[in-house]
Amino acid sequence: MIKLSRRTTTAAALTILALGGTVAATAPASAATSTTKAAAAATYNGACGTGYKVIDSTPVGNSGKVFVTWNASTGKNCAVTVRNAVGNKINMRVTLDALGDSDAPAVDSGTYTSYAGPVYVEGRDSCIAWGGTIGNASAEDSGHCG
Fold first, then answer.
1. Is 33 helix (H, G, I), strand (E, B) or coil?
2. What pTM does this model have?
3. pLDDT band at 78, cuts 50/70/90?
4. Quick one: pLDDT at residue 74?
5. Which of 61, 67, 93, 138 is most buried, by CB atoms within 10 Å?
6. DSSP single-letter state for residue 58
């Protein structure tokens, strides 16, 4: 039978704990990287105002999203194009159209740091189409008939 001194046993235990702490300390670094990537995705910024709820969104390349909202009490739809991250001014655009009516689509276009819009259309008794541009990326979609 091998008899170890208390000092040897304590040293071995501390070494094992230290190695385990090193492994545990490095694990969150990779988790932080994936959390940072997820945080970069565009989120609705509330620009349409009180009472508007997001009903759809369409990615604009890898640069951001167009968010479409609806306000049941006013009967209006709203759209806003939001970048993934605030940056230098860049050409941005948002369009929203109530299909079948004779009015021109609602459009906001310019050079912005974070979002274009909001734009509004009457949404009752019509379908809508929306689109957005961020730099060279653009997207369009339609649906949500009310």
1. helix
2. 0.73
3. very high
4. 95
5. 67
6. E
